[in-house]
Amino acid sequence: MAREQLLALLIGTAGTGKTTCLKAAMERLAAQGFTGVVVAAPTGVAADNVGFGARTLHDLFKLHKVNPTSGTLLPLQGEDQSALKKAFDGVGLLVIDEVSMVSRDMLAQISERLQELRRLRGEEAWAKRLFGGMSVVLAGDFGQLPPVGKAATHTLLHEGVVPGACKERMLVNAGLRAFQEFKTVIRLRRVHRIKGASLYRESLLRLRDGAMTKGDVLVWRSHDLAGPGISEAERASLTPAERKYVEANELSLRDRSYLQNEVPHLFAENAGAGRFNADRAGELAQRGGLRVLRVESRDSCASASKLEFGQYNGLRRVVHLVEGARVMLVKNYRTDAGLVNGSMGTYRGAVLKGGEGEEGHGQVALGRKVYAQTRGAVMA
Hints:
With 380 residues, this protein is of the alpha/beta class. It is 34% helix and 15% strand. A hairpin with a 2-residue loop joins strand 11 (360-366) and strand 12. The N and C termini lie far apart (69 Å).
C-alpha cells in the first residue's frame, strides 16, 4: 500500500460527470500500470453503474457481520478473513461511489475493517491510522438519496456530534470524525447531460440548495396542474427570461385537463396515489351520474383481519370502481392473455354473483366528497 494517504471528495450534481470522471481516472491509472484500486458503492445498482468490478460495501467489508446486541462489527474469521485479504492484495486506493447513501456509522465501520486488515497482516502501526492508512476517494452528490433507514443525525452532512455514550452513538461520532479528515475536495459544476442553457434546470438546482427566488416559484407554478396560475401582477415581477419561459410553457386549460385525467401520475407514497385516484374516480362518477362499485375483501380467518395490506402483496381490503375509470393491475393474473403486473385498461363493469353478493345501495366517501354507491361483496 502507498505510504502517503489521500482522503478526497469528488462531488457534483446529476449530469456533471462524476462517474465519467471516475472511469477516466481508473483507465488512466490502469494505463500507467497502477491496478491497485478497489471500487465499491452502497447498492448493487450503483456498483454496476460505475463498473470496474465494483462491489457493494456490505459484501466487500462484510458489514452484516455484527454483534446483534451491541451492533458493533464482529472480527472476521476463516473464509471472510481470506476474502478481505485477497480483495485488498496490492491495493492502495479505495473509491466509494454514491457517497450520499453512506452513513456516519458505515464510514466508521469501513475504517474499522481496513484497520482489521492491517492487524491481520501484522502491520500494527498502520492499524492505528484512519482507514488503516488506505487512500480513499468518496464520490457522489449529497443532494441525492440519503442513507436508507437512518436518522438525519447519522448522515455525513449532519453538523455536530450525537450526544450519549452508547456503542451506536460512539460509532456515529467516529464516522463524523473520519469524514472531517477529507480535506481535498473536487467539485464538478458544469452539467453535461443537458446541453445548452436551461432556466428550469437552474431553478431546480437552486431549489435543492435552498436558494430559490420568487421568480423560481412562479416558474414552477406555471407547471402546477392544481394551482391557480399566475396573476398579471406576478407576471410583471418576472425577469424577461422568466417571462419568456412562462409564456412558452404555461399550461392551457385543455392541457391541464388532459394531464390531470389522461396521463399516469407518479407519487412517492401510496397515500398520495390513493387520494389522487379517489378524487378522479369521484369526479368521474359525478360527471356521468354513475354509481361507485365498492368491492370488499373477505378474510379467511380472524387473524387475517389484523394483517396490513402490505402482507397481501399490496392488495387492498376495499376497492372502489367507476365505469370509465383507468385501472392498472398490480399482480400477474394471466400472462398468456397479457393480464400482468403493470397492465393498464379501462373499467367497464362487473358481473356480481347472486345471493349475498347481490348489490345494495348507499353512499361512499371518495377523496373529499360523498357519492352514491353500489355495493358488491364478490365479483365474478
